[in-house]
Amino acid sequence: MTIWVLIGILIKILVIVGITQGTVAYLILVERKIAAWAQDRIGPNRCGRTLGVPFALIQPLADGAKMLLKEDVIPKYVTKPLYLLAPWIAIVTAMIGFAVVPFGPTGPEQIIDFQLAPNVDIGILYVLAVGSLAVYGVILAGWASNNKYSFIGGLRSSAQLISYEIPLGLSILGMVLIAGSLDLSKIINWQTQKFYGIPCWGVLAQPLGFILFFTSAFAETNRLPFDLPESEQELVGGFHTEYSAMKFGMFFLGEYLHVITVSFITVILFFGGWDFPYLTYPEQTAWYWTILKVAVITIKVMIAIIFIMWIRWTLPRFRYDQLMDLAWKSMIPLALINLVATAAIVQLVRTYWS
């Protein structure tokens, strides 16, 4: 690896970290607007008005300043090393998952490779493995806080995340079998082909797999209706009850980064990534086509994020036994049936029609 390649990778890391942090700040504003719309109220609309900035666009900066300037309280009864380590685990595991996510077209013929670690043959496996590490941050936060509400929140989170990782992994295997690769770029390239003029997007080839994946991924983000680990009415704030200022903000940041990752993976696996029927094709490598493809995948990801926010402010929270029943009695059996049926069909097609 030459020094210029290393510098290029470092620049890409800095750009992606900067863009994701800025995106998270404004996603919080978007979610507050959606919450206000769902609850029939105005929402944030004044911050920046005196400076002539419309639509409260300075609100994320004010929120960030509040997080940084707030008093950083550390209760005396916590296990301090683990208490301080937990928020870092939450945010680092959320960030490093982006390493294999393609943000745009990839390959040697492209002017820019929109992927930090291209040609990783186990891309989707890496995302799942790194994402599963986030549960350690939640468990450590709950245990190290020495608070009964935090501890119960940590226990709930560990049971929930481990339970939903099973259907999450099984639901992806159908697309992996069909595309014949764990590489996210190759899975997108498979979806760009047409079958009698109809795009072979994953949502059409694996409709049950898509529903199971999206539901499981929703549960992995700990958001309503799956926010049992922090349910305010029962557990005050759950695992982050004893956290304040920037340490609380790091959990918040990790949650939103997880939402962005889930949205990217959903679009890549089931909605063709940067493919748009009758508009984009793999052989288009000029810079203007690259910009168009990046815009296509960005718009798809934004739609997925807004859909996740809309669900949060629409559905009520599950009861804990309902949450576990949904995973073990419904989603895991359905995921197994989907996997076996897909494997049989793929084997038949490759035996008799290839």
Quick description:
With 354 residues, the protein is mainly alpha-helical. It contains 13 helices and 2 strands; from the N terminus they run αααααααββαααααα. Helix 11 crosses helix 12.
Describe the overall structure.
With 354 residues, the protein is mostly helical. It is built from 13 helices and 2 strands. A two-stranded antiparallel sheet has the order 1-2. A hairpin with a 2-residue loop joins strand 1 and strand 2. The protein starts with a helix and ends with a helix. The mean pLDDT is 84.
Give the helices and strands, then pairings.
Blueprint: H1 3-38, H2 59-69, H3 80-96, H4 123-132, H5 134-144, H6 148-179, H7 184-191, E1 194-195, E2 198-199, H8 202-205, H9 207-220, H10 232-235, H11 245-270, H12 287-312, H13 320-352
Antiparallel strand pairs: 1-2
